[in-house]
C-alpha cells in the first residue's frame, strides 16, 4: 500500500514537471514557428553576439537599473538627474539584441580639398637624365678664352662654331659639315658668332672690330659693319632687325642692319670688356655683363642716339667677370647671371626692381647658363675643378644631375631649336651633345612652327 501511494505521487510529480516544461518551451515555439515550406517563415533573425553589450542586456532584462521593485518616490530634481545620467551613460537604448556590427567610424585624416588635389594631379614620373654625352665631335683650334662667344645653334637646326679663323656649320638634321668663312690672320681670329632669329642669316664678330653678316643658304657675305668698336667684338645678340654688339672697348652698340647708317644707339657703362649680351624675350630689356664684375640692365625705351644712354639698373653684387646670362622663358623679368672664378655664384634678378632674389654658390667658375624651355630647370656649365654641366631645379636650386666628360672648362653652351639637346664646347677641343632636357611632346610641334621673320625679310639686298 505504501509503495503504490509512493508510485502515484511520483507519477503525479512527473506529469506536473512534464506539463511545466511543456509550458516553459511554448514561448520559444511561438517566436520560432516550425517552417511549413521554403517560402514561409522567412522572418527569423539570429543575434550577433560580437555586436552585443551583454552587461547592458542583463541590466535591461533584470530591471536592475530601475532600482527596487517598489522604489521610494523621488523628487523632481532627482528624476532630472537620473535622466541626464542615463543619457550620458547611454542607458536610454531600447534595443537589447544586435543583428549586425556597426559600420566603422570614418577617419578624416586628410581634408577633402587636399584629396581632390591629389587625385586630380597625379605624381609625375621622374625624367631619366643621361649622365654622358650622346655624341662627341672634334673642335680643333677652338680658342680657350672665357670672354668670347664661339658657339650658337640657329632656328634652322644648324649649329655654328668658330675655330680660330674659320666658322663651320654643322647640320643637325643630316650631320653634314660646311665651312662658312675663313678670315685672314690680320682680321681674325673669329671672336663671336650669333644666328639671326630667321635661322638663315648669321653675324660674325672679328678680332679687328668688324662684324660680318652672312647668308648661310647662299654662302654669301651680305654686309660688313665698321666703325662700331675700336677692338675685338666678343659678344653679339639679335632683337628682330637690331644687332647688338659688345666689344673690348667697353661699349655696346645697337645696329639696325636695314639701313646704311646702322648705328642707332650706344650704351656706355662698363669699364672693361663686355663679354655677355642677352635681350629679353619681350625685346624691351638688354642685359650686359663685363669683365668689370658689373651687370647692367638697359631699357630700349630709354635709348638715345646722340647722347649717353643711362642704364635702368646697375648691379654690383658679383665679384668676378659676368659672362653667363639667361632670361627665364616662363617668368617675365627674371634674369639669371653667373660669375667667374672668384665669384662662382649664380644669381637671380628681378629686372623690374633690380633686386637680387637668390644667390647660389656653385663652387666653380660659371661659364654659361641655359634655361629648360619645357620645365622649371636651369643648366650651368663650369670650369675648374670638375669642368661639369650641372642641372638645377628652380626655384629650389637642388642639383638634379651633374654631367661630366669634358677635361677642360666648359666655356660655351647652346640649345637646339626644339629645346631638348644642349651642345657644349670646351678648351679640350671637343664639342659634346647632351640629351639633358629630355624629349617633351611639344618638341614635335616645334618642328612645324614657322621660323621667325628675319631682319632682311622685306629687303632684296643689304646696303
Produce a short descriptive summary.
With 463 residues, this protein is an alpha+beta fold.
What's the total helix number?
5
Average pLDDT confidence is 82
Oligomer: single chain
Shape designation = elongated
The strand count comes to 28
| Strand neighbour order, sheet with most strands | 1-28-27-26
Structural class: alpha+beta
The percent range for helix content is 10-25%
- Terminal CA distance: 157 Å
Set down the secondary structure blueprint.
Blueprint: H1 2-31, H2 54-62, H3 76-88, H4 112-120, E1 135-138, E2 151-153, E3 158-163, E4 166-171, E5 177-182, E6 190-195, E7 201-206, E8 211-215, E9 220-225, E10 233-239, E11 242-247, E12 251-256, E13 263-268, E14 274-279, E15 285-290, E16 295-299, E17 313-315, E18 322-327, E19 334-339, E20 345-350, E21 355-361, E22 366-371, E23 377-382, E24 389-393, E25 398-403, E26 412-415, E27 422-425, E28 430-434, H5 442-446
Antiparallel strand pairs: 1-28, 2-3, 3-4, 4-5, 6-7, 7-8, 8-9, 10-11, 11-12, 12-13, 14-15, 15-16, 16-17, 18-19, 19-20, 20-21, 22-23, 23-24, 24-25, 26-27, 27-28
